[in-house]
Amino acid sequence: MTDHKKRFEAGVAAFKKGDYKDAVDHFSAVIDAQTPGHMALESRAACYQEMGRYKEALLDAKRIIQLFPDKHNGYSRSSRILTIMGHYDRAVSLARTALQKANTRDPKSSAKVQQVLDAAIEAQQANLEKLRLSECHVNKLPFELLACVFDELVLPGDMHPMRLAHVCRMWRGVLMSMSHIWSKLVLDGKGKRFKSKVDFWMERSKGRIQDLHIRHLPSFLVWLEAYGNNSLPFVDHVTVNFGSDVVNLKPIFRFDANPLSLTWTGSSHDRGVPRRLLFTPLQSHPYRLRELELDNIKLLWQIEAPQLEDLTKLVIMNTRIDVEELIPILEKSRRIQTLHVSPDLRGSSTNLPKERILLPNLASLGLSRSCLLLTYIEVPELRNLNLQFISLKHAFELLSPVQPPLTTLAAQECADAYQAQLPLVDSLTSLSLSSMSMPYDQIVGRLAAGECPLLTELSLSRVDISTGALVRLIKARNPPQEPTNAQDKSVTEDTKEAAKETENKTGNEVKFARLGVLNLDRCPNIDSEMLPWMRSRVKKVICKFEVKKKSRGATAQGYMSWLQNLHCK
């Protein structure tokens, strides 16, 4: 027996005893003394593996593959080491290669290599399951539910789809398969890669652009030439963000297809310049607009009004319009549902109809700086009313009917508010009053006594309201669910007594909807010590004081007086 063979057998004996360091010395002596065989290299790699020296073990395994590429030993040993190190994909690949190299005539060696492959695959699957359990709970949702979540984030315009696509590969795959997510295209002409961006958007949306934002006219003309013929039939909403005439936007207007909505925003310099939607002769039938929103844009209404018979929403902001111009639009658009007019309405009643115009579908009305329009319209189905900077008393006197079925009433910085009779109808669910002089204690007392039983949201900001009136309101509308201590029990008794008094006055049992939102921003008379109790009864209480602002003013005033005294000295 040669010395090399004796050293090899001594190394094997030391390995079986667990003396891996001595075994490594014997195997190293055999490898250094002659051209190493695959048995000596694999044996030393096994020793390194048991000692936790995986890098050195992997080097010996790779050396076997280089010297003996037809032997399965190097591949199988590398697979075992990589499985321990956590490189499962590479380990499975090497184990499959080892199975191909194994001698089919030797069933034992083939069985050992198969065991190595099974161990690598089992470790790979266990790791994938571990990763799945450790992932965010959102990724555990089914594809359809995750797509619904992305719809709620992207479609209202609150989130850009690319921000979600950069989160992870899974989200990117879901978003790329949702063509309607990419249906909003902004043509602003910014960036050197603008054309590639447009091409990407058109590819993702499959050419079905529904929301088109035009901020740069040359970019729109380029897009129109490349994609307009196929994409324009799908456009549902167009936003134009420049004040020049839209004569070049003629292709977006429809005469035979479904009506679209148009938002046209200009600058303050464009406010007094009359504009036209189309510079072409009138067609045999009008062009189709479903919604029209104008900001700093003044149209030639005498020409445009007959063409707006399909209008359901009209918003006019920051531009002057006369009543004589607005009334013909309302006469033509009897199906209008939303009407917001912020400029000061002016005009005389000489050329206006004597009878009120019936708007049976109008559900939302917003007026600012003038309530003259209420003289000429009748709104029997009005749900939302928003008034700003007008005479509140005069507005409610002109309102027809006097008490429409309102669900939302908002008034801000209106004059003559103290004498106004608020239409506190039973259908009211939201009431917002801000920066006005009114008998708020009496209004809140009426709410506590049983008026507006469906009210769930109350906003009183920058008003003079006492804490006691609010406490009585909360006790009446938000009784404690389950009293747990003596204080809650006493409050419950007070609530029952208040309910009994209300029942004796009205003769009926009063059932309130619980108050869910209470906004008391910058109300000077609110006792901060009562806020924790209010928050224990009302789900959401908002109350911001002006303490910081006052303290800053006091600090600045003290600093200036100190400088003056220093200068005098």
Structural category is alpha/beta
Main pleated sheet: 14 strands, parallel
What is the tally of beta strands?
A: 18
Report strand %: 5-15%
Helix share of residues? Answer: 40-55%
The number of helices is: 20
Mean pLDDT: 80
Shape summary: elongated
CA-CA gap between termini? 111 Å
Poorly predicted sequence stretches spanning 5 or more consecutive residues: 279-285, 486-492, 501-508, 548-555
Please specify the SSE layout and strand pairing.
Layout: H1 3-17, H2 20-33, H3 38-51, H4 54-67, H5 73-85, H6 88-101, H7 107-134, H8 143-154, H9 161-165, H10 169-176, E1 184-187, H11 194-204, E2 211-214, H12 217-231, E3 237-240, E4 260-265, E5 274-275, E6 289-295, E7 298-299, H13 301-304, E8 313-317, H14 323-332, E9 338-341, E10 357-358, E11 364-368, E12 377-378, E13 384-388, H15 392-398, E14 408-412, E15 430-434, H16 440-449, E16 457-461, H17 467-477, H18 486-506, E17 517-519, H19 531-537, E18 540-542, H20 547-568
Parallel strand pairs: 1-2, 2-3, 3-4, 4-6, 5-7, 6-8, 8-9, 9-11, 10-12, 11-13, 13-14, 14-15, 15-16, 16-17, 17-18
Helix pairs in contact: 1-2, 2-3, 3-4, 3-5, 4-5, 5-6, 5-7, 6-7, 16-17
Q: Can you describe this structure?
A:
With 569 residues, the chain is an alpha/beta fold. Among the domains are: 3-134, Tetratricopeptide repeat domain (Serine Threonine Protein Phosphatase 5, Tetratricopeptide repeat, Alpha Horseshoe); 431-569, no CATH class. It is built from 20 helices and 18 strands. It has helices at 3-17, 20-33, 38-51, 54-67, 73-85, 88-101, 107-134, 143-154, 161-165, 169-176, 194-204, 217-231, 301-304, 323-332, 392-398, 440-449, 467-477, 486-506, 531-537, 547-568; strands at 184-187, 211-214, 237-240, 260-265, 274-275, 289-295, 298-299, 313-317, 338-341, 357-358, 364-368, 377-378, 384-388, 408-412, 430-434, 457-461, 517-519, 540-542. The strands form three sheets. It has a 14-stranded parallel sheet. A two-stranded parallel ribbon has the order 5-7. Strands 10-12 form a two-stranded parallel ribbon. Helix 16 (440-449) packs parallel to helix 17. Residues 279-285, 486-492, 501-508 and 548-555 have low confidence and may be disordered.
